[in-house]
Each structure stands twice: as C-alpha cells, then as structure tokens.
Amino acid sequence: MLHFFYTNRWQILTLTLEHLWLVGLAIAIAIIIGVPLGILVSRRAWLRKPVLGGTNVLQTIPSLALFGFLLPAPWLGQRSDRLAIAALVLYALLPIVRNTYTGIMGVDPAVKEAALGMGMTDGELLRHVELPLGMAFILAGVRIATVTAVGVATIAAAVGAGGLGELIFRGLAMVNNELILAGAIPAALLAIIADVAIGAVENRLRVPK
Prior knowledge:
Elements (H helix, E strand, L loop, with lengths): L1 H6 L1 H35 L4 H13 L2 H8 L9 H26 L3 H9 L4 H31 L12 H10 L2 H29 L4
Helix pairs in contact: 2-5, 2-7, 2-9, 3-5, 4-5, 5-7, 6-7, 7-9, 8-9
C-alpha cells in the first residue's frame, strides 16, 4: 500500500489539491451567503421557518440526486466544477445559517440591553457585541460544514469534477482496494485536519463560564 502511494504520489497530490479547491471555494461562498442569512433570520422572526426549514430540506436530498437536480441548470450544468461547488454550497448552508442564528440569539439579553443603554445602534450591537460573542458558534457551524463538504466532495467525481473521489470511483469500477484507499485515506485526513484546526480556533473563542 505504501509503495502504491509513493508510486502515484503526484497524482494523489494533484487530486488532493483539486479536492481542497472545491471544498475551500464552496465553504467560502457558503460563509458569504450563510452568515448574513443567519443574521437576517435573527432579526426577522417571520423568516426563521422558511429559511431554516428550507436549508433542512436541502440536507435531506442525497448528494447524487442533488447533482442530478442541478445538472439541467443552464450555467451550472455547463461545467462540472461549477455544479459540484453549487451542490457543496447548498449542503454547507444549514450548519452555517443555523449556528450564526443560534450564536446571535444566545447572547445574554442583559448584555444586549446594557449595550443599547450605552447608546449603541443595532448595527454597532451586531458588530461589537453579538458577532464577537457568537463567533465560537459560527465557527462550529463552519467546522461542521467543512467536514461535511470534504466527504460530499468525493461524490463530485461522479459528474467529472475531479478530486479524490476520482480515485474512489475508479477503484470501485476496477475492484481495486489500493485505488479506493488512495482516495479515501487523504479525504479522511483532510476532514480530520479541518475539524481539529477549526475546532482549536473555536475553543479559543469560547467565553469561559
């Protein structure tokens, strides 16, 4: 097995970088969309059920089925990497939106009242109080989304988007355990590294009780 990894190290490295690119771009887009959406949901009670319910529904769709649903889309369907990134973004939205909402709503009401009593506007309250105090929860959502995306990105190879899933699918087709492990082991390591790294930052930001 080690000999196989060494012999094919450049191919594995290339596909690992492709995997990182798909996941990294998707998570960045999901943060850009999800955090403001979570803030909006915390400010508009009537949006909570449709937004949180909608992102919950997206999580229940099997990954291959989601790729199939997105395939006919005019712009997304033209390139497999766009299709894969769009699917990963949709899967990443739920934990980011939900944890942003939970982090903001979890701030002690007394702290909010004190900030407003000091003359802070709603925007200043958000920037200087709610987001800093809720950042650990937001990062927890990013961590869950990232680990999930690393796993789901392996399915992206089914639509030709590349990544480590390419080795897994090729190994399944050839009934070759070495190929399967060459894709599965780096993907698992990426998920573990992401979980540990983001978790360490998250723990640093947690307010001691």
